[in-house]
From TrEMBL:
InterPro entries: NLP_P60_dom, Papain-like_cys_pep_sf, PG_Endopeptidase_C40, SH3-like_bac-type, SH3_16. Keywords: Hydrolase, Protease, Thiol protease. It comes from Enterovirga aerilata. Signal peptide: none annotated. Residues 157-278 form the NlpC/P60 domain. This is C40 family peptidase.
Length: 295
């Protein structure tokens, strides 16, 4: 049988995706059911336990395929990046309606009515996708319930012009292993989220990103804004020819520092030497601007 990346392959010892029949051995194959995340965000873990390691977070509106549910956990594959794991069943709802808008604010509070003076019930993070079903004054009611400020949303086809500028907005956000919200994220989560806001899909983990994204460049022509610098287990975004923007455990936050300083520390204390510099087809704009969110 072929060898597959377990992170991206919906196959367990007792169950596998129907599409893998003949490729992996399993006593049972299922087609899976289309669902969608209806919670503001949800953890995706390696095992169906609340204290299991966090692999990533899933934002409201993300599509998933559910293969199994047991004792409050669903075994799923994410539609956005193909990651496989366990998430709380209560975070899932029907696949329809499809989202039409994206949250462009770092976070937007959800209210029980169209009034900012009401006590908020939750918040939606940058990148969450939603379906407005009613507009009242400056607020929209979501298909999942609750109201958000319409100025914090843009239509799905509208994207940031510069993914680096998106990442800059997250400077100071605490570092969280597996995190992908504006309350906490890790290095590859920062890259994936920032690129997604600019309309560019990216895998979840650092090794996947190094393999899949951009074209490798050497240091001789000089680094540019938007270049991705990889180590074995870490990634950062060049803010300009000299400064690196990255979520990291040294600062325990998204931070900007001189690449030379970061490279020395990382080489000596953690991930070793730089393994690659990748340049994307759509580099960030040098003026640091982003598209103005619409309604």
């Amino acid at each position: 049988m072929a060898t597959f990346d377990k992170r991206l392959t919906p196959a367990r010892s007792d169950l596998a995706d129907e599409r893998l029949r003949g490729l992996v051995d399993a006593p049972r194959y299922v087609a899976g059911a289309a669902r969608r995340v209806t919670a503001p965000s949800a953890p995706l873990r390696r095992e169906p336990y609340p204290d299991a390691p966090l692999d990533t977070e899933v934002l409201m509106g993300d599509p998933v395929t559910v293969y199994d549910e047991h004792e409050g956990y669903a075994w799923v594959q994410l539609g956005s990046d193909g990651y496989v794991g366990y998430m709380p069943s209560e975070a899932l709802g029907p696949a329809a309606p499809a989202p039409t808008h994206r949250v462009t604010a770092l976070r937007s509070f959800v209210y029980p009515g169209p009034n900012l003076k009401l006590p908020h019930s939750a918040f939606l993070s940058l990148g969450a996708v939603v379906t407005p079903v009613e507009v009242r004054n400056e607020y929209v009611r979501l298909s999942t319930g609750g109201w958000v400020f319409g100025g914090h949303l843009s239509q799905m086809h509208e994207h940031a012009a510069d993914f680096v500028a998106v990442a800059e907005r997250l400077v100071g956000t605490p570092y969280l292993w597996g995190g992908k919200t504006s309350l906490g994220l890790d290095c590859s989560g920062l890259v994936q989220l920032s690129l997604a806001m600019a309309g560019m899909a990216a895998p979840r983990d650092t090794d996947m990103q190094q393999s899949a994204l951009g074209t490798e460049v050497g240091p001789d022509p000089g680094l540019r804004r938007g270049d991705l610098v990889f180590w074995h287990g870490h990634v950062g975004i060049m803010l300009d020819e000299a400064r690196l923007l990255h979520a990291n455990g040294h600062h325990m936050a998204v931070a900007i520092e001189e690449l030379a300083e970061a490279e020395h520390r990382i080489r000596e204390k953690s991930f070793g030497p730089i393994t690659a510099v990748k340049r994307l087809e759509r580099p960030g704009r040098t003026d640091g601007t982003v598209d103005r969110p619409g309604h």
